[in-house]
Amino acid sequence: xxxxxxxxxxxxxxxxxxxxxxxxxxxxxxxxxxxxxxxxxxxxxxxxxxxxxxxxxxxxxxxxxxxxxxxxxxxxxxxxxxxxxxxxxxxxxxxxxxxxxxxxxxxxxxxxxxxxxxxxxxxxxxxx
Length: 128
Prior knowledge:
Elements: H1 6-32, H2 38-65, H3 70-97, H4 103-107, H5 112-127
Helix pairs in contact: 1-2, 1-5, 2-3
């Protein structure tokens, strides 16, 4: 197994930390509107871990793709994206089918990595 690039670990850590902040905000919104229960908490945890795992796997794919020829890299990235989407779909189905999870609280964290990357890109531009 290849060594994990430090950049992949650093970016995944950043996404994980920001996703915790977004998860806490989501929990606060549920609490404020009076809809919070343990299913929301468990759904948020399931969605959070799936989203961060998806981001980490994407980073590993990009790390591997950089070392390949263009066509092979494109195919690898496409395959990885399809498999990761199936993974998120399976997590969403589990969140829907198992009553200890709130399906909305499972699915919302799927966008947290994208929000984290957006926030990161805005802060990096401000520093330059």
